[in-house]
Each structure stands twice: as structure tokens, then as C-alpha cells.
Batch of 4 targets.
Target 1
Amino acid sequence: MINGLNPLSTFIERKVNSVQSGGRCVSCLSPHAHHGLCTGCRDDLPANRWHCHSCALPLAFATPGMRCGECQTLPPPFSRSLIPWRYQYPVDGMIGRYKYQGHRKFARPLLTGFASFLEQNLESEQKPDALVPAPMHWFRRWQRGFNQAQDIAEFVGARLDIPVAAGVVRRSRRVKAQRSLNRAARLQNLRDVFEVRGAVPERVAIVDDVVTTGATVRVLASALRSAGAVDIQVWALARTPG
């Protein structure tokens, strides 16, 4: 079963980030792990079972049409979202360790499960022509050392044989950190922030780690649609509950 991620000791932190312990569970350190998680910890991941078919907002129960209120009144500029987990314990901690501390051992089980989830959902469908990772401003990328959205896009792109268009969109300016803002402030914060710099295929999937209010992917999808994209999907590891 999954134990708390934050209070891991220095010894355990070294263990889950060492090459020698690649077969151990990143949470409980069981030696019986597959792609970084044991069976019990994998079963504890919060599946996004009932969700809006447009934005993947977690729903309390199945509803007719499976659309949240916002997507019914203000349809998004993308066709659907494929997001396997809710942004709750322990997924939130695993993504946090990966995103803010660079511990890729915590991302490995999520990336592997995400790729399998996408393969199942796209089995009988046409795949996107390209993956567009949510761009990060160059200064923030320099501070963090990597863009997690591009990491995720490159992993699933290689697995699904879809090219990654990492440079087709850039952030034209730095913005205030989104996690401290409500939805209205996020939309204002992102006004005119994305600049499309190249040809955009007709079918694309925006790739990110977490979708919170959906403001970022709405603005980014609008920019891609204005540049010629016809079918836009959103792919992410986790969706924050409303």
C-alpha cells in the first residue's frame, strides 16, 4: 500500500532515485514493483473514473451526457481530454516530486501507465498528427532545468509513434504562477501569452502534467485553432477535482 511521500527519509530518497533500485516501488520500497510501483500501490492510484468527456473534470457520479456545467454553457476549443487520474494523494505527491525536485523515479510509473491508458483509448481511432507540450517560459525552464510537459510528450510520443512539435508554440512573456490564482485571474494572466511560431497540423494533442481549472489548455487550444488546427485534444497525467 502507498505510504506518505513527503516524510521519506534521506536514505529512502536515495534508494528510489538510484539505478540499482529500479525494481523497487517508489512509495513503499517493495522489491516486487513493475515500472516503479508494486501492485498494491498501483491499485491505490485515484482513477478519474467519472469525468466530463470534454475537460475530464472529475464528477461525483455518472450523469447523462457526461458533461460538466461549464463545458455545456461554454464549450472548450478542444474536442476531448484524456486524463487517467485525479490530482489527489498519492498522484499529487508523485508529480510534485518529479516536477519541483526533479526526481524522475516518481514520474516513471505514471508515464508508463499514462502511455498504456492512451493506447487503450486510441486503439480504434486515428492518432493526432503531433503532440504539443504546454510551453514553459525560457527563464522558468532554466530555473527548473526541464519542462515536464515536454518530458511527458516525448515519452508517450515515442511509445505511440507520434512526433512532438516542441517548438511550435512559445510563451511570449513570463506570468505569475498559476497555482495561486482563481480561474478568472488565470485567464487574465494568460491573455496573449502563447505565440504560434510554425505550421500547425490539423490534428494535435496538447500535453501537460496537470489540468487545474482548464484555463491554460483553453487559451493554448484557442491559439492552435486560430493557427489552423481542426481537432485538438488535451492529454495530461492528472485533473484537479472541482
Target 2
Amino acid sequence: MNIINRGVRQLADASRKLTLDQSALNDRYPATSSEDSALSLPRISEYWPTSVHEELARQHWSKATITPHIDLNAWQGFLDNLPRDPYVNTRWKRMSWLHLNDQMEVETLGECPMAQGGRFNDAASMADRLRYYDPLEAAFTERDDVRAFVKAWADMWGIGPREPILMQITGVRGDGTIDPLQGQGIHADGCKYLSILVLNRENVSGAINTLYRDKAGSELLATTELAPGEVLHIHDDQLFHSVSSITQDNAGQHFERFIIIINCSFIDEFQNRMLRRHFPGAVLNDCE
């Protein structure tokens, strides 16, 4: 990391330590209304319950719901146009790199591959590969409630301007009886901050999220099943996680489960090399 980028990073880290009072937060992130629904979007300071911050500080994970803040039916409408994952044939997926600009507004960045080193995820379809996906649809990323979610998520973690944020919509669907969920086992995503949001669950059981202290899974911390609109926040550099396979409630009938994965501040140098190459002006986690 050169001197300029290191200085920018140090300034960003210093700014995170400042505690903004309620009025300052309200001025920075005023309440808005979504043009696409009757939702009244909350101020960023009111997006997450106090318990979320307390649990993240105490146990490195927390579970919350955002159904009051989003039009979940509208978000689910973007699942129909997901292309098939070219690397895992039984999944469907889109992803985009986002960031907050200097005015703390959400912007979509250009193309950069997803890269994950084998020490974080040794699944054959994931480890040490560059993976390219179609971007999220602009009609989705430009929604007021999507942008409000990204802003509130970034604020929760203390993410500053020009730090790349990876946002994915991914999931499984089918009509047969064979479980299409090709599990990754116990893994981490090679970042500091990770959240998993369930968009829908139709005709399925299972998909239980499990958190562990170590990659070997010798110390189990918690298990939870996420309903649509619920989100699991994880300090990904502190914990490991897995998800169990799914089964159809009614065999032979259509089933699907789709999620949003959003993460930032990568400790995986493989991913950071790609980010430096594609986004030279980005502020990256200094893991060198």
C-alpha cells in the first residue's frame, strides 16, 4: 500500500473512532421515503436496534430483521432474472461492487472478480479462483430502500468512503428431489464484516446457519434459521460459519431459497490484489 493510500486509510480509521451525536447522524442521513413503496425509511441511527451493536461487541454476531424498512416483495421480484451461476451450476447469482462516495452516497463500481484464497474457503468451486458474475440490476441498486440498507449496514460497521462493498444475490431453486445446495462446509469469507439476509424460503426446510469459533468446528457457538427479511451479522475475521443442506417440504414441487450476502474490509490478500487492480482509488483494509 503506497503512502497516499496508507494516509487515507489512517484518516478513515481515525474518523471511525469519532462518536457522532444523534443530531449529527440525523443531519447526515435524513429520513427519506421510497418512491417504489409506501415505506417511510428510518434515520440511519434508528435502523438497527441497540442490541445489534451490543451483541456484535460481546459475541461477534447478531441477528435482526429489516422487514419494517424494506419492500420485501419488491426485492423478491428481482430473483426471476438471476442468471445461473457459471461456477456452481445449481445456483443462480448476481453481484456488484459498491461503495460510499465522499458525500456518503451509495455508488456502483465497475467490474472486479470475486477472489477467495483457499485458507478461508477450501471448497473446490471457491478456492483460489477468480469468479465473474453479471452485476445486480440497476433497478435494484437504485431503489431507495436498498440504498438505505447499504448506508445503514456500512454505518453499523464503521465503513468509510471508497471502501469496496461486495453485494450478492444468490440462491437455489428447482423442481426435483435432489438437494441442489452444494455446501461450502465450515468457512470464512476472508473479510472483517459480513451479513447474510434471507430474501425468501419456499417449500424448504433446513438451511440452518451455524457459527463456530474455529474452522475445524470443534467449538460450536450458535445455530439459527433465518426467515425472509432476517439478517445475520458476523465478524467474519473472528468466527467461521456454515449452512446445512435443504430438503423439500413437498417432494417434486418447486422450491427455492435466495439470500443477499454483503461484506467489506477484506483480509484476503488475493481479493485485495484484484481490488487494487480494478479500483486504484479504493481504500482497502491494510492486511499486508
Target 3
Amino acid sequence: MMANRSEDVPLVSVCVISYNHEKFIEAALDGILRQQVAFNVQLVISDDCSSDRTAQIIQKMSGSLGSKMDVEVYYQSQNLGVIANFIFALKKCTGKYIAICEGDDFWTDAEKLASQAVLLEENPELAGSFHRVAVHYEGKPYLTGEYGSAVAPILATKDLISEKSLMHTSSLFFRREALVFPNWYGTMLSGDFALASILSAYGPFKRIDRCMSTYRVHDTGITNSDAYNRDNVSLKIRILTHLNVFHGFRYSSEFESVIQELQAKKERKPGVVKSIRRRLKIGLLFKRVTYWLQRV
């Protein structure tokens, strides 16, 4: 039985974090505004002291959003950093379930929240759900992709022990009671890589086999930042090591296997890395030429 929108306690909280997303935030909020639901929704937005017009756009759209859901907007007076701001926003969520849409991504299916809420209401053993996500490369239309289509329909803790995130953040929908913040979580540069694993301690995730959001890849995104890419492999090794402890060493062999694979990548000769990068650039050039030739 689905909860009614008139109830005071929201069934779903939507968590949005933003920082200098003036080009993208309107699309993110519009995707949330278009959701067709029959239950109460809380929208929590935390802008991390943006230096562009992101805050003004949020303020302008708050009225339309407030007509459909309970809106709480927080404008940070100083920059907290992506993880601290993420934790801040998540802690403000009071719904039974939480969905995430970062300010540079957007939802494309008006029934996303309703579909995921029904799935979890009917399956109390699940910690959460996810779905396929389109990948949009800003300014590079010759690149396309999809996130989550090649993974198993059910993902438990052991399945999520990987070199990369198997579920994109914009697709995550989970029980608030499954959410905990280990002490080390706030010190990591990337939050999504660890979040799904932490939540999986409650139960597995189930995929809805529909593409319901878009992940935007752009030059100012966290995964394209110098700090993130400077030693991305070491960051993942630290996170996996912490997660092994978090899960009580029940999956030590699986964690150690992935850590060893990452360690081997770190130790590869620079010449090999440069060779791979050269091949990648050739591959990108081929995709670019093919894209434009198809449009001649």
C-alpha cells in the first residue's frame, strides 16, 4: 500500500547537491518537478556556496517545486566540499526512502520515483533499487553510452566489490534506515563508490530495466577534476580497504582480489600507460569522424 501525499511524513526524500551548476541545475530540478507521484515528497537542495548563478536559479524555481512537494533549500555560506555537502544534505532527508539527483544530472522518466517506491514497498528485503542511466558527454555528441545495463539484475554486497561503481548515483533509491556514515566516509574525495556498498549491508539492490536518468560528463565534474584523477587508483584502494573493515572482513578474499588488481595497475610502467592513452585518442578520433560523416 502506497502512502498518501497528504501525510505529514514524506514517503520519499529527494537529495540534490549543487556547486557551480548554472548550466545544468534547471534540467535537474525540472526532472524532479515532472515526477508523477501520489505520495508526499520532500526535496532537499544544498548548494555548496556556488560562485555562479546556481543559487539564483534554484531560488527562482523553488516556487514551482514548492507547489508539488515540501522544499528545503540550504545555501552554504562557505564551500564545504562535495562529500561534506552530500552528507549534510542526506542528513536533512526525513523520508522513508531517499533518491539522489546531483545538480549536473537529470531524470528523464516521470514515473521514476513512483516505480522505485512501489518496488521497495513490495519488497521489504531490498535495501534499494537502481536502473539504467544514459551517459551524455557535454560538448562531445560523438560519444554515447549507458550505465548499468551490463550488470546483474540483483546486486548484493559481494557483487558490488568492484574497481568501479556499478550503479550510477542518479539511479539510486534506497531506504533511509540503511544509511550510515562511517567515520572515514567524510574524508573520501568520491562518495558514490562507497555509498552503494555501505547501503548493501542492509540488503541487496534490484534493477528496474528502464533508462530513467542521464549522467552528464563534463569538464567541471568531480570525476574530471585534477584532484580526483591525480591518483584515482590509490583512492579506490583506500575506499575498498575501509569497506572491508566496515563489512566485518566477511568478504576479505573478494576485496583483496580487487585491491591487488588495482595495485597492479599502479605499478605498470609509464610507457604502457602512455601507449594506452595514445590508442584511446585514436579511438576517440575515429568516433568523432564517424559521427560527423553520418550527418553529412
Target 4
Amino acid sequence: MQELLLPAVTLPERATSEEVVEAFGTEPSITSVILVDEYQRPEGSLDRSRFLLSIAGRYGHALHGKKPALRLADPPRTVPRTTPAIAAMQVAGQDSARVYDDLVVTDEVGRCLGVVRVSDLMRAATGPYR
């Protein structure tokens, strides 16, 4: 997992939806924002596509803009940093609606170390193309 680890974009769990929109707007390659508590433990995960669709939908910004983004967050899909790629793939496949959501890699005490994109995980698990 270490070689696939990417820095996570994190915001405090009390961040507003507007702050998350701003985070997604700063870099188009960001696929998720992880909401963390004061100890950097993941409390919620916001997938770029689903979150921006809910904000861009009819009355979305009016309903959610100034309110906590945690309301729109999914539970984070966490894996310890020592998890083998195959086991991480099993975690990724547990919920078919969220199969491509980033996995949050945590340390021994549950703090967020970064994220692993499922597409990168699949590439690593299947080996190099020949």
C-alpha cells in the first residue's frame, strides 16, 4: 500500500460544503476530500463526483453550501497501511455503489496517512502490461 499512497486532501470534520467545493476547485486531479477529527482520524469521505452533483443539483448550494459537509459524506473506507493489495481490493468491492471511491490508509492509531485510488490498486494487483 505504501507505494500507492497519495497525500489526502483533508479538512476538519466541521468544514462547510463551500469549503469542500473550494478544495475541489483548487486542483482537478483531487478525487476525494477526507473529513478528519482533531486527531486526524477520518470521519467522512466525499467523492468528487457525488459531492459536486449534490451541490450543483437544483437548490443544492442553497441547501448545503453553508452547512457542514459531513452531512453529505459517506463513511470513510479505511485500510491499515500494512494491508496487502488483494485485501484492499476486497474492501473496495464490498459496496458496489462505492467501488471506485478512494480508500483511506490509516496508521496504527487510526490517523489518516493518505489515500489509495482503486484504479491504481487494480493496476498494481494485475501487474504490468506486456
